[in-house]
Amino acid sequence: MIAMLVAGGAASDADPFAAMRLAMVEEQIAARGVKDEAVLAAMRKVPRHEFVPEDGRREAYADHPLPIGHGQTISQPYIVAFMTAALGVRRGHKVLEVGTGSGYQAAVLAEMGADVYTIEIVEPLGRTAAALLKRLGYKVHARVGDGYDGWPTAAPFDGIMVTAAPERVPAPLETQLKEGGRLVIPVGRNFQELKVFRKSSHGLELVNTLPVRFVPMTGKVQGG
User: Fold this and answer.
1) Helix (H, G, I), strand (E, B) or coil at 177
2) What is the C-alpha separation between 43 and 183, in angstroms, rounded?
3) For residue range 122-139, what is the model confidence (pLDDT) as tens digits?
């Protein structure tokens, strides 16, 4: 595995896309019922256009996912907001993200004050995202590797978010989640559900579901 630490502060909001970003939050996210003000504030600030290829920037704030190369996508803004709100992130929480992708979700979590650990199995994406997060000033721990095993040396986590779909919850992720913490993960092959779990003394308890479509989780999970 290749580990990287991205250090810095918050991103600047001074850009020509600001009005589009505000409209995205109000029309696509708040209007659909996401009311967590910390999530809305972060997504008003994080420059989503920086996380898409340059030839797709005119679509950066549109209401759909976008390709980022290597068969991967940046999720629809509403899905990013829904997953972040479902995770219940608060300032100072330690959060694991499996599937860095473009780095946008990690930036949103960092903007909210979370201590973010993120893993990407596709090395070019992982390296590009780490460099971008550093350039924008976000403090994120980034690693290239297989997220199936989580990040044992940083565990336990207050929350775990998975942005690619396995057929079942990887056992190491449940183990690395604190009691009372939440796991947000799309599960399934052809028909997926975004499942929100809370960990209790009895194991994972289902809190909420939403039909979704994500790229499949790859790596060790395919052998399970």
Assistant:
1) strand
2) 21
3) 999 999 999 999 999 999
**Which CATH number goes with the domain that contains 46?**
3.40.50.150
Range of the domain at 90: 2-223
Q: 3-class DSSP state for residue 68? A: strand
Contacts of residue 149, Cβ cutoff 8 Å, sequence gap at least 6: 170, 172, 220
Other C-beta atoms closer than 10 Å to the C-beta of 92 total 10
The two structure tokens encoding residue 4: 């990287």
Q: Which residues are catalytic?
A: 75
- In this prediction the pTM is 0.89
Cα–Cα distance between 59 and 18 in angstroms, integer? Answer: 14
- Non-local CB neighbours of 207 within 8 Å, separated by 6+ positions: 86, 182, 196, 197, 198
Band (pLDDT 50/70/90 cuts) for residue 24 is very high
What letters, b where the CB count within 10 A reaches 16 and e where it falls short, cover 132-166?
bbbebebbbbbbbbbbbbbbeeebbbbbbbbbbbb
> What total number of domains does the chain contain?
1
